[in-house]
Structure prediction request, 563 residues.
Amino acid sequence: MNTFSRLAVLMKPIQREMLIGLALAVVASLANFGLLFLSGWLLAAAAVAGLGGIVAQNAFNIFLPAVGVRFFATVRILARYLERVVTHDATLRFIGRVRAWSFERLAPQAPAVLAQQRSGDMLFRFVSDTDRMGQFYLQVMLPFAAAAICCTAYVVITGLFSLPAALVLGVGLLLCGTIIPLITAKLSAHATAQISLQQDMMHADLTEIVQGMGEFMFLGAAGSVQKHIADQQANIRLCRQKIFLLEDGARCLSTIIGTLSAVAMLALATHAYHAGTLSAACLPMLALGGLAAFDVVGPLPAAWQLLGHVRVAARRVFAVCDQPPCVPAPAAKASPVQPLDLCFCNLGMRYPEAKHWALRHANLLIRQGERVALVGPSGAGKSTLINLLFRFYDYQEGTASFGNVDLKNVDADVMAHHVGVVAQDYHLFQGSIRRNLMIACPNATEEKMWRALQIAQLAEFVRAEPAGLDTLIGEEGVRLSGGQARRLAIAQVVLRAPAWIILDEPTEGLDTQTEQELMTALLSALPPQATIMCMTHNPAVAGLMDRVVRVEDGRFHEAGRAP
Ligand SMILES: Nc1ncnc2c1ncn2[C@@H]1O[C@H](COP(=O)(O)OP(=O)(O)OP(=O)(O)O)[C@@H](O)[C@H]1O
Prediction:
C-alpha cells in the first residue's frame, strides 16, 4: 500500500465527518460564485431596465434576484462557518488517531528498536510529522476535492451562457489549479526535501543539546554547538526563502491569469452580445463570475507544497512504526501461576548484532521468596536478566520459565504485574513526589505513600520539605541528589508491592549507614513470600541476601548460601 492509501485507511473512522466538511466547502464556494454571478446580472439588468424607460422599469422584477443575492450571501456565511467547525474538528480527530495508531505500534518496539533512534528525531516525528499528516485532509484533500467539484460546476454554468467564455475559464482554472502549482512544487521539491532533512537533524541535535547542556559546558563545546545550530538554521532559512519566492511568484501569476481570464471572458461575452446571442446583463455576470471562480484554486499552490511535506512526514512515521518489534508478541499468551519461580535452562542470549553471547549455557533457578544477590564483573550479564524477563530482548537457546510458563508466552504487561524493577538507568517523571508515586500505584493512599518512603529511607527528607509529597523534583528528578532519586525509585516499587522485586545497584550513591538502613528496612518490610533479586557490586549488600549467585563468562555460578 502506498503512503496516501495508508493515510486513507487511517481516515476511515472519520470519513463521514470529512465528507460533510467537503460538502460544506463546496456549498460555500458555489454560494460565493452564485453571489457574484447573480449580483453582476442584477446590477447590469437593473441598469438596462433603468435606461429602457418606464415600461422596462415596471416590467423588471428586482425582488426575486435580490432575494437570490441575499440567499447566496447567507448560505455562503453559514456554510463557511459550519465548514470551519466540521473540518477542524475532523482534522483534530484525525491527528489524534494518527498519534494513537503510531503509539500502539511504537510501544512493542521499546526499548530495543527505539534505542536505535535519536530521541529528538523521534520527538519531532511524533509531534511535528503526525501534525503534518493530520493536515492532509484540511489543507490538501479538501482544497483539491472542492476545487475539482466547483471548477467543473463553474465551467458548466458559464457554458450555459457562453461556450467560448467557459472554455477560457476552464483553461485559466486548469493553469492556476494544476499547471502552475505543479511546476512550483517541482521547482521547490529539492528545497522542501532539504528543509525536512535539516529540520529533522536540527530537532534531534537540539533535544540532545538541551538534555546534555551541562556536559557540553564541561567539555567546553557550547560555542561550537551554538554555531552548528546557527548553521543549520541558516540553511533552513535559505531553503524557505526559495520556497517563499516560488510560492509568491506562483500566486502573482495566478492572479494575473485570473484577471486576464475574466477580461477575456468579458471580451468574448461582448462579442456574443454584438452577435445577438447574449443579453447585455450577462456581460458583467460572466466577468464577475469568472473572477469569483478563481477563489477556489487560490489555496492549491500551498496544497501542492504541503502534499510533498505530508508525503515525507508520513513516510518517516510509517518507517518507524513498520519496524518489527525485537521480540514477537506471544502466540499464546499465558499468565504465570504460583509459585513464581524463575528457571533458566541452558539459556543462550545474544543481543542483536552483537558478536558475543551475553549469556550462554546459563542455568539458574530462583524460587519465590528467595533473596538473591547477583554479583559479577561489569558487563557479565546481570542486567541482561531484566531485559529477558520483560521480553525486551529474546533468547536464542535453551528454555526460560517464570511461574511455570514459558517466558516467550508472557507479555511485558503481565510481567509488570508480578515483577517490580528499579533499573540502573531508572527514570523519574517531571512533577512532584506524589505524582511519581501515583504513576507507580494510581490508587495509593497517602498513608501507603509515606510507608513506602519510610522503607526507602526518604520519608525524613520529604517531611522536611515545605511542600511534603507535593515537592517538585524537576525533569528526571534533577532537584534530588543521585541517592535521593534512587530511593524515590525504590519507593515506587515498594508501593506497588509486587511478588518479585529486582534492584539493579540499589545502594549506588548512598553512604554506608543509609545503605544498611535502606536494605534492612526493605528486607524486613517485605512479606516472606516476596522474592528479591539484587544486582550489586557491593559485598555488604550481597551479604544481606540469603544466596549469592555469581555471573561470569555468561553463566550463573552458585557462590554461597547464607547459613
Ligand atoms: N542493548 C544492548 N545491546 C547490545 N549489547 C548489550 C546491550 N545491553 C548490554 N549489552 C552487552 O551485554 C553484555 C552484558 O551486559 P549487562 O548490562 O547485562 O552487564 P552487567 O553485568 O549488568 O554490567 P554492570 O555491572 O556494569 O551493570 C555486555 O557485554 C554489554 O556490552
